[in-house]
Amino acid sequence: MENIQCFRPTKAVIDLQAIRDNVVHLKNMLQPEVQIIAVVKANAYGHGDIEVARTAMEAGATILAVATPDEAVHMREYFPQVGILVLGATPISFVPYAAANDIMLAVFSQEWVEQAAKQNIDRSLKLHIKIDTGMGRIGVSTRDELQQLYDAITAASHMLVDGVFTHFATADEEDTKYFDKQVKMFKDFLQLLPKKPRLVHVANTATSLIKDASLQFDAVRYGISMYGLAPSPYVETILPFPLRPAFSLQTELVYVKKIKAGQSVGYGATYTAEEDCYVGTLPIGYADGMIRKLCGQNVLVDGKFAPIIGRICMDQCMILLPTAYNIGEKVTLIGTQQGVTISIDDWAGKLETINYEVPCIITNRVPRIYSN
Ligand code: PMH
Q1: CA 80 to ligand 1 center in whole angstroms
Q2: Shortest CA distance to 178 belongs to which of 166, 188, 169, 186?
């Protein structure tokens, strides 16, 4: 895809080579026959789903996972051949499209299967049974439910148990008690299936990076590590190889002025200069996902830290400059300038959240620009 034209200098620059390198490293950790499911839901964690999917597949991924039917349709338009799995719940109304377009669906309800079986479909629907081993989100959680679900699928013509999977709640933590319980339950449930489906998959990034290789089964589902981020501070300390973050956020100074001691900046006049200083205005605000909680966060100008001052506006915010700079000076909000880095993890700390959330909250108004 061509990089789109944008006039405002605010952009998220996505380093596709970083994603390629991350996937290649991840692939090297796997047994040769294990497939990579690239988790590209939520616009590839805010990075841009089509470009990330293409890059991940060039580097060795063979299946794409999304969260919703609509995301699956979007993927199918760009990738007519590749396996696409919907990880979340799917309404019955999507079943005909899924069958006709070879979309794999997560399934966890016998009633859903019975309803789906009544749909007019002429090609086999590939279903992945979701077992809830402790995440408490979606999935069958008793042996009876599993048995009934399995029987309902095999009784229906045009339906296939293509896969079985679960998701771990604490794979990124040092304490393995809860994780081990989930593993045991999954393995026990797997034994109940009369026939092993084509794709058994349980591992997310943390499971694959720091747990037993036997949990790779037939495929692993890589999300956060593809994007070059660690799933938790604990996993960060024991990464088997360095990850390369792909997401950076860039803009430019659109206005610079000198203010006098005592002058204030922004809504509510919450910042008042203690001495004469230079203030820069950036064309990015909370409508771009830079929410007001980021007040005080540093950005980089000329390789130097400059804090956001005053309240962040909808489309703009102000920074305290170390000295006078020209309009057009490059500003890095996330990324590296002259060897100095502000990371997604820095933002996550400031926002009191996890790194996963940060690129996801940068809204679509910020164009994603790709570098190779
Ligand atoms: N598999 C499932 C079912 C997931 O929901 C996710 C991430 C992954 C794999 C990939 O995990 P990773 O990014 O840690 O590698 N899902 C979510 C979520 O729902 N909220 O945060 C991450």
Answers
A1: 24
A2: 169
Give the residue, by CA position, lying nearest to ligand 1 atom 12. Answer: 223
Ligand 1 atom closest to Cα of residue 165: 3
CATH of the domain at 35: 3.20.20.10
**For the chain, what percent of residues have pLDDT higher than 90?**
97
Neighbours of 182 (CB within 10 A): 23
Atom of ligand 1 nearest to the CA of 87: 3
* Mean of pLDDT values over 255-281: 98
- Identity of residue 190: L
Backbone angles phi, psi at 306, to 5 degrees: -140, 125
Q: Is the CB of 227 under 6 A from ligand 1?
A: no
Residue 223 CB less than 6 A away from ligand 1: yes
Q: What is the mean pLDDT of the chain?
A: 97
Last residue of a domain, one of 195, 215, 237: 237
Tokens of 337: 């300038």
Query: pLDDT (tens digit, 9 = 90+) per residue, 302-348?
Result: 999 999 999 999 999 999 999 999 999 999 999 999 999 999 999 99
Q: Which helix (H) or strand (E) holds 181?
A: helix 177-192
Cα 158 to ligand 1 centre (Å): 29
Query: What's the 223 CA to ligand 1 centre distance in angstroms?
Result: 6
Q: With beta carbons less than 8 A apart as the criterion, state whether 92 and 54 touch.
A: no
pLDDT in tens, 24-79: 999 999 999 999 999 999 999 999 999 999 999 999 999 999 999 999 999 999 99
The answer, yes or no, to whether residue 355 has pLDDT greater than 70, is yes
User: Does the CA dihedral 240-32-216-130 come out positive or negative?
Assistant: positive
Q: In terms of residue numbers, what domain contains 273?
A: 247-371
